[in-house]
Each structure stands twice: as C-alpha cells, then as structure tokens.
Automatic annotation (TrEMBL):
Keywords: Membrane, Transmembrane, Transmembrane helix. Residues 33-188, 222-363 form the Sodium/calcium exchanger membrane region domain. The chain crosses the membrane at residues 12-29, 35-54, 66-87, 102-123, 135-155, 167-185, 218-237, 249-268, 289-312, 318-340, 347-365. This is Ca2+:H+ antiporter.
Length: 366
C-alpha cells in the first residue's frame, strides 16, 4: 500500500494532464450536467496543479528569469485563445469580454499575486527583498500598456462609446507587441541580472542551490506535459463557462463577473507557482511571474482581438469605466511606491490585497 502511494505521488503529474485532456475531448461542445461539471472541475484543479509542477521543472532547468517567462507566455497564449473563442460564440453580449478579462488579469496579478507574494515572504523574513530595477521596469511597462489599451479608448472621439477606431486599434496592437518584445529582450538578454532573485543583503542569486537541474530529456517531457495541462485548463474552463454564466445571471450579478472568474481560473498556475517561490525566499521570481503575466495578458490579448475583430460581429469595447480607472490609478500609484525601495513589509502586501478585494467587491456590486 505504501509502495503504491509513493508510486502515485511520483506519477500523478504525468497522469493528470492526459486524464484532463481525455475529459476535455469527451466533453467538448456538449452541455454538462451537474455531475459532469463536478468531474470537469476536479480535472481542472488537477491540471492546474500539474501545470505548476511541470513549470517548476522547466524553470529549474532553464533558470530565472526564463522559467517564469515560459509559464507566463504559455498561459497567456492559451488564455487569448479562450477569450477569442468565447467572443466568437457570444456575439454582441461578449463585446466587452476581452476588456473585462484583461483588466481582471491586471488586478489579480498586480495586486493579488504581488500582494500575496510580498506578504508571504515578508511574514517569513520580516522584509521581502527584490530587485527594484527589474521590477520597476516590468511594472512601468504594465502601467503603460494598461493605459494605452484600457484607458485611452474611453476618451477617444473617433468612434462612439469606449472604443478605438480601426487605425487606433492597429496602433494599440502594434504598441503592445513592440513594448512586450522590448521587455522580453531586456529581461532575458540585455539586463537579465535585474530579474534574478536577491539575498537580504541585495546580492544577486544566479543559481538555484536546492538541487541539481533536471536533464534535458526530463525538461522537454515537462514542457510537453505543461502544454497539455494548460490546454486542458483553458479548455475545461471554457466547458464550465456556460455554468458560470448561468450562475452569474441567476445571482443577478453583472456580466463582467464572468471575465473575473475566467481570469481567476486561468491565472491559478501562476498564483500557486508565485506563492511557492515566495515561500522559498525567491520573491523576485514571484514578481516576475505576476508582472510578466499582466504584461503578456495585455501585450498578446490586444493584438489577438484586434486581428479577430476583422471577422467577429459586434463592437469591441476596450475602455474602462470611471470606477475601474480609479482602481487602476490606485494600483499604479501604490505599485510605484512598493517597487521604488526594493524592500517591502507585510503592510505593502496587505495594501495590494485590499485593492484586489475592492475590485472584486465592486465587480460583484458596482
């Protein structure tokens, strides 16, 4: 019995992605009963946990900041596919889905993942220490992308409503791609040391001293299983999305809550991976994951929906309302003050989490 349990503990990250993919294939495009929704939800949770495991294996092999970049980009590419698919299926009622999901991702990453990571690390070590240069560059890019893509459409006058004209949308998409490309080059080539974990004394940690890195074969296997797990996460999330939408409607909640729930589901792998890194005193890795996911979410989603808008019916609403713009402005201001010292106490983590709580409360009760 003990041998079987040990075998299961070793093999579950390899079995669960295949099982989740099988359930996805069997349930794709079908209406789900309550029992099937429960089964899909269990497989979804298992796929999230296995994705985190394989992402950590890859990160250990390639090192930072490449490891966090792999997970952030992989999740976001599949998230974009989910958003475009839901928009294609939803017609006019999904015209603001991209905006709602992207803004939810920004708030969850910049306040939820960042806040939790700082809080966990600061509670363990009194002060969470990170590299202000790299984190500031990432946060500044996120703020710029959010402002160009989500705030400007509210104030433009070429088209009615909080929307871009075709020329403005093309500009926003190109700006998002260029800025994201510049950041990736900065993070991985020009100034890689700015995004590496640091000790309490500010010394850069350029190697993981916990264990030897896995072999190339093991890392490639994990890369394939990570792709399968993430496809399963997003596909199963789409499968339960009608249940989420009907539940939201039955509860009398705003339609934008659907975007919040989708973002929460899709960002679970990054959240768990970031918390694990923070518990190992690698808060810089946590911040790389959080801010990198926010940046990838905007930098890849806006160009994708810009292209998809060619054949999608109905308007593409991107501009935020006044309440959300206030929350975004507070996030930028608080995040700037958090990043500048390169050190954070539990207070800073609590402030970020309070902003996320305010966003969720106002999403449910605007």
């Amino acid at each position: 019995m003990n041998h079987q349990l040990r075998l299961l503990a070793v093999r579950w990250p390899f079995v669960v992605p295949a099982l989740a993919a099988l359930v996805l294939a069997l349930t794709w495009g079908r209406s789900l009963s309550a029992g099937m929704v429960a089964l899909v939800s269990c497989c979804l949770a298992g796929a999230v946990l296995s994705a985190v495991h394989h992402a950590e294996v890859i990160a250990h092999r390639v090192g930072e900041p490449f490891g966090s970049l792999v997970l952030a980009v992989a999740v976001t590419i599949i998230e974009v596919a989910l958003i475009v698919t839901l928009m294609a299926d939803g017609g006019e009622k999904s015209s603001s889905l991209a905006r709602d999901t992207v803004f939810a991702a920004v708030m969850i990453t910049c306040n939820g993942i960042v806040g939790l990571s700082l809080l966990v690390c600061a509670l363990r070590r009194r002060v969470a220490v990170f590299n202000a240069e790299g984190t500031g560059a990432a946060f500044g890019t996120v703020a710029t992308l959010a402002g160009l893509s989500l705030v400007l459409p509210t104030f433009t006058t070429s088209t009615p409503g909080p929307r871009f004209s075709s020329a403005q949308l093309v500009f926003a998409a190109l700006a998002a791609l260029i800025l994201y490309g510049l950041f990736v080059a900065t993070q991985t080539v020009r100034h890689r040391d700015y995004f590496l974990p640091v000790t309490a004394e500010g010394v850069v940690i350029d190697a993981d001293d916990h264990a030897d890195p896995p072999s190339a074969k093991v890392a490639l296997t994990s890369l394939g299983l990570l792709a399968v797990a993430l496809l399963a996460v997003v596909g199963l999330a789409k499968g339960v999305s009608p249940t989420i939408e009907s539940g939201v409607a039955a509860a009398g909640l705003p339609a934008s809550v659907v975007g919040v729930v989708i973002a929460l589901l899709v960002l679970l792998p990054e959240t768990i991976a970031a918390l694990r890194a923070a518990r190992r005193d690698r808060v810089q890795t946590s911040l790389n994951l959080g801010l990198g996911s926010a940046m990838a979410s905007i930098g890849l989603t806006i160009p994708a929906v810009a292209v998809a808008s060619i054949w999608l019916e109905g308007p593409l609403v991107l501009g935020l309302g006044a309440t959300h713009m206030v929350l975004l402005a507070l996030t930028v201001a608080v995040g700037t003050l958090t990043v500048i010292p390169g050190r954070a106490t539990p207070l800073q983590g609590g402030v970020h989490l309070s902003l996320l709580a305010a966003y969720i409360v106002l999403a449910v009760s605007p």
